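I'll show an entry:

:::
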Amino acid sequence: MKTFSDPQRLQKWCLGRRMAGAKIALVPTMGALHEGHLSLIAAAKRRGADEIVVSVFVNPTQFGPSEDYAKYPRDAKADAAKCRRAGATAIFFPTPANMYAADHSVWVTEDGALSGTLCGARRPGHFRGVCTVVAKLFNLVRPHLAVFGQKDFQQAAIIRRMERDLNFGIDIVVAPIVREPSGLARSSRNAYLSDAERGNALALSRSLRELKPGPWASQRRKVEKTLADHGLAVDYVEAVDAGTLKPVKSIGKGTAVLLAVYDGKTRLIDNRLFA
């Protein structure tokens, strides 16, 4: 497995592999890799990628001033070992300094049709940072496909729109949520949780499993009560059209139910897609 930290060296290698006929996949991550991330590598392998590039970058521009950028878990050695075992062929460990020039001034933004609600409404500037860094990674790697996780549902929808609107020509693959045996969605931020908080967090997946097609209002009230009864501070509970992220009044095919809560000081998200 090749290791890169310099963006230009990565770009040169990827261009050479592409010109040689290799099918390239990109798996963007912030590190602290777990089974959910490894499932993205597996998804790339299933789609016949010859080269699987995993980026590991805690991107400062997608964190707000009071968020957890400084304490976000980082373990480059463990991440590299996990990528190697999972079958990645290259790993990219950039630094903020070599991703953003001191006078960086060009940003990629979505005008609010998808980013103005849910996490975007509560984390100003978050998706500007996400879109910008992903666009930079697309330009560096020039992948044929890029794999993202369903757990970050709004992010995946925005990246799909960015790829379409900016004509990147990349197949955006969204892999299913990977859960712990308890049902808790895998997340690097689960490391912040105490045993009691982990128990409370199970109310997220339990609430989602109990949902049924049909009117949303009464089910929403039930979900909100269940979450509150487990000591979770509700950020949002929404049923939306999976493509437009517009609210819907009834759960049916093409509906996504999205949850965000604070479990102690830790913000957790989860969702269920009705296919």
Remarks:
- The longest strand covers residues 233-241.
- The CA atoms of residues 115 and 134 lie 15 Å apart.
- The chain has two domains: 2-175, 188-274.
- The mean pLDDT is 98.
